[in-house]
Amino acid sequence: MDKTLLVLAAGMGSRYGGLKQIDPVGPSGEAIIDYSVYDALRAGFTKIVFIIRHDIEAAFKDTIGKRFAQRAPVEYVFQELNLLPPGFTPPPGRTKPWGTAHAILMAADKVREPFAAINGDDFYGPNSYRMLAQHLDRNMGNFAMVGFTLRNTLSEFGSVARGLCQVDAQDYLTNVIELTKIEKDGDRAKYTNEQGRVQPLTAEEPVSMNIWGFTPALFPKLRQLMLEFLQKSGQEEKSEFYIPTAVNTLVSRHEAKVKVLRTPDHWFGVTYREDRPRVVESIARLVKAGEYPGNLWQK
Asked: At how many degrees (to 10) do helices 32-43 and 126-137 cross?
């Protein structure tokens, strides 16, 4: 079955600085996004759609896009502040993007088959793509999310935001709670809320790292939710329409079922610049273990 990999790559990485989607971390200059595409292609995905911004288009295509053009069909869509439904305009002074759900909605005209949606700067591991591909190939109509163990997603250099998942007895998602300040706490973890109250965590909790499996049935639902978001928050300078929030709403309205696929893989990404050496070291270990070739795209 044809399947698309939809890569959200419009962000610049405010805490990291620079276009981290194209920062080399592999032994032959590969970026994290190279490993994502490599894993997806060998799991059976057949097309790649990158969501970027016009101002990074030339650099992105020259550094990333050209690597894949001979291996799979590649298309681009753009997420911009002014790409809104008729009747809506960004408020004066707004510079933040509209969020991950808005980004996915931008690809509605390019994606007509089941698809995975991922962050362009996160390493999810090969199991994640295999599990999503198998789920989408079953053509059950349900959506899916790869759930990581919290301890496998934390940074040594500061707090992170994670979507804490609640599931039912059949591993279907019932809720995603966005926790914006999670830190390591010995061999466990802790969350500090906006009032400064600390909540202990076991670090075994399943979390969302924004790797999803959808069908095109998502797009009309997102259009409706986008309208609702804009009517409520469209004149705010910093509010964003996130895909976990959208999925939560669909689940609560019984408009979607989302299977949580638990992976043993370690997530890693460059949330902080200090994370980069660990990412380089982790990929080097995987190459040495034979999980990846020393040069992903060598003919």
From this structure: 40
